[in-house]
Amino acid sequence: MALIFHHGLLKDFTLILDDADDYNVIIQVGENQNIKEFRAHSVILRARSLYFKSALSSNWVTKKDNMIIFSKPNLTPIIFDMVLRYIYTGELDLTEQSGENILNLLVASDELLLEELFIHVQNYLIIKQTNWVRENFVFVLNTVFRLDNCKRLQDYCLESICEDPLQFFSSKSFLSINKEILLGLLKRDDLQIEEVVIWDYLIKWGIEQTPGLGYENSDRAKWNYKDYETLNITLNQFIPLIQLAGISRADFFDKVHPYRTIIPTHIYKEIEEFHYKDSLPKTTILPTRAGLIFKSNIIKPKLAKIIINWIDNKDTMYIRNNRNDPFYKFNLIYRSSRDGIGSKSFKKKCNGRVASLVLIKVKNISKIFGGYSSIGFNSSGDDFINDNGFKFYNSSDNFIFSFEDGDDTQNMKISRVINSSHAILDYYHNGFNFGQGSLSMSYEGLHVNNTCSNYENNLNTLTVYTIEEIETFTVNR
Question: Rounded CA gap, 473 and 261, in Å?
Answer without folding.
Answer: 44
